[in-house]
Each structure stands twice: as C-alpha cells, then as structure tokens.
Design brief:
This protein is an alpha/beta fold. The chain has one domain: Metal-dependent hydrolases (TIM Barrel, Alpha-Beta Barrel). Helices cover about 45% and strands about 10% of the residues. It has 14 helices and 9 strands. It has helices at about 15-20, 30-40, 45-50, 70-90, 105-120, 145-150, 165-170, 190-205, 205-210, 225-235, 245-250, 260-270, 290-295, 300-315; strands at about 10-15, 55-60, 95-100, 100, 125-130, 155-160, 215, 250-255, 275-280. Strands 4-5-6-7-8-9 form a 6-stranded parallel beta sheet. Helix 4 (about 70-90) packs parallel to helix 5 and helix 10 (about 225-235) packs antiparallel against helix 11 (about 245-250). The radius of gyration is 19 Å and the shape is globular. It starts with 7 loop residues before the first strand and ends with a helix.
Length: about 325
C-alpha cells in the first residue's frame, strides 16, 4: 500500500467568544458540542485531527465573522481576533496556520489588517463570510482588499453566510421552519456564494489585479459544473476580453469542504485541473474521519492524491 500523503485541511473553523457574542442572535454555532470544538485549540481539536490523520489545519473564524457588524465594531474586533488566533497557533505551530479576519465594512482597514496579519503574524491569507451588510464584494468599494492581497501574494477565501433577509423572504420563507438548513449548506449558502463568484468575474477585478487568487469551498459552490454554460451564454452579450471559463479556471481554487463526492470531484478536476483542488473538511460542522477516509480512496494516482491532500495548499499558501 502506498504511503499516505501529508494532509492539510484549510476550511477549519474556530469562534472567538467575544466576537461570537456580538452576533449571538445570528449564531449558527449554538449547539454545545459545536461551540466546544470551535473554541478548542488543544485536546479536542488535536485528538480529532490525530484520529483522522490530519497533519495540519489552516484555521479561520466561523461565519458570519465581522461581515455583519458596523464599521467601528468590525475594525475593533478584527485585530483582536487575529491576535488571539495567532497566540493559539503559537502553542502548536507545526499543526496550525491561520486565515485572517478582516473588517470588510472598512476596506482600507481590512487591507491594512490583512497586511499586518500576513507580515507580522504569518497568516496565509484571509477569509470573508458572505456579504458585507448586504453588499457583494465585487463592488469597487472593496477593491483595496484585492489590491493588497495581490501585492502580498495571498488568496482571499470566500466562505458562505446566511442570505440577506430580503432573499430569505423571497426564496425560502415557506420552508425554513421545517427545513432550516435550506438557508445554509443545503442551498442558500451555495446560491449566494456562487453569485458572488460570478459577479467577481464579471466585475473585471481579475483584469485589474491579474495575480489575484481566490478560494471557494464546497467544490466551488456549483460553478465548476456550470462554467461551460455560463461561458457560452455570456458570449451572446458580446462579452469582450477573456471569457468566464478562462478567468474562473485561472484565478479560482476550490476545496472539498463538506463535499466528498467522487463524481463531483472528477468534474472539478476536468474543468479546473488537479492543481486547483485543495482538501478541506469544514470542521467542526463536518466530521474529520469520513473526509480523510474518502481522500485516501479517491480514484486518482498517488501523485494527484498528494497534490489534493497537501501539495497544492503548500504551493498556494507557501506552507
């Protein structure tokens, strides 16, 4: 049996108690066993990593982070959260890395905190959760963040959050009482985040910042499956420059977080290439063990499994 590759998981979460208290009415992490794991950087987290054969986690704050806070609160909290995460990583530096929390309600402050987190704290990029108080991040208002990410050569990870109240009212209100997960991983997360990805491509931000790299979880929120059709139909509008498929395949990386399907993975590899696929779990919202068991049996060569398990992450995040 071939030696198992080094395993890096990079959509793995924590929750800062002070920040979590600010969005408690929106908190999806209220279950005691979930909250315990989110706040653990020692025994619980490491034991579950060891049991599943996970060598390294890149840790990020859970949704909705600071994206739904007012400007003052977001700017105040982001560096506090990053400093606390940095201290926790320092206790286990061979097992943990970090994605920064950034105050997107103030893009200049967010860009400055991204730079501090990368250059001073050793973080590997940043994670943004959903919309910023109802605004998609392709708006030029947010482009200082992308300019700084390109300059630092670090990716921005776009993670879902619960859709805006207007979307919930229009799309989901009849079903949320019986099926509350429809707002989250079952559908709402995917629709909103895929829309963000489409808007990013159409905005021209990747032409302005041609070395910008972004990460989408959950095997790209459906966009790899749809990109051929999006590309073909957008051509009817006389789209100039690079098509959607070319831009998406160059600038987007996708992770396997919470999505361990052989057919879906094969489709993503066919559309994006194996070098753009990164292993992730979405812990503690998804369990470690089934994810790593799947990783080691995916129908790829040992070299390609090693790329997905850690090689691509090492290259993208400079680990």
């Amino acid at each position: 049996m071939a030696e198992r590759p080094y395993v890096i998981a990079l959509e793995e979460h924590f929750q800062d108690p002070e920040l979590g208290a600010l969005y408690a009415p929106l908190d999806a992490n209220a279950a005691a066993h979930v909250r315990e794991r989110l706040e653990s950087f020692g025994d619980t987290r490491l034991k579950e990593m060891d049991a599943a054969g996970i060598d390294f986690q890149v840790i990020s704050h859970s949704a909705p982070s600071v994206q739904k806070l007012d400007v003052e609160s977001a700017v105040r909290m982001a560096p506090l959260v990053n400093d606390r995460l940095h201290a926790a990583i320092g206790l286990h530096p061979t097992r943990f890395g970090g994605f920064a929390t950034i105050a997107t309600p103030d893009p200049k402050a967010a860009a400055d905190e991204l730079e501090r987190a990368v250059t001073k704290l050793g973080f590997k990029g940043a994670m943004i959760h959903g919309l910023t108080n109802g605004r998609f991040h392709d708006e030029p208002f947010f482009w200082p963040i992308f300019e700084r990410a390109e300059a630092l050569d670090v990716p921005i990870y776009f993670h879902p959050a619960v859709p805006s109240p207007a979307v919930i009212e229009a799309y989901y209100k009849e079903y949320i009482e019986k099926y509350p997960i429809i707002l989250r991983a079952a559908w709402g997360f995917t629709v909103e985040t895929a829309t963000q990805g489409l808007r990013l491509v159409l905005s021209g931000v990747f032409d302005k910042y041609p070395r910008l790299k972004v990460i989408f979880g959950h095997l790209g929120e459906g966009l790899p499956f749809l990109q051929w059709r999006i590309n073909m139909t957008m051509a009817r509008d006389n789209q100039s420059g690079r098509g959607f498929r070319e831009v998406f395949s160059e600038h987007f990386y996708v992770t396997t977080s919470g999505f361990w399907s052989d057919p879906a993975l094969l489709l993503c590899v066919q559309e994006l290439g194996v070098d753009h696929i990164l292993f992730s779990i979405d812990w503690p919202f998804a369990p470690n063990q089934p994810a790593t068991e799947w990783l080691h049996r995916i129908p790829f060569s040992a070299d390609d499994r090693a790329k997905i398990a850690s090689g691509n992450a090492k290259r993208l995040l400079k680990l």
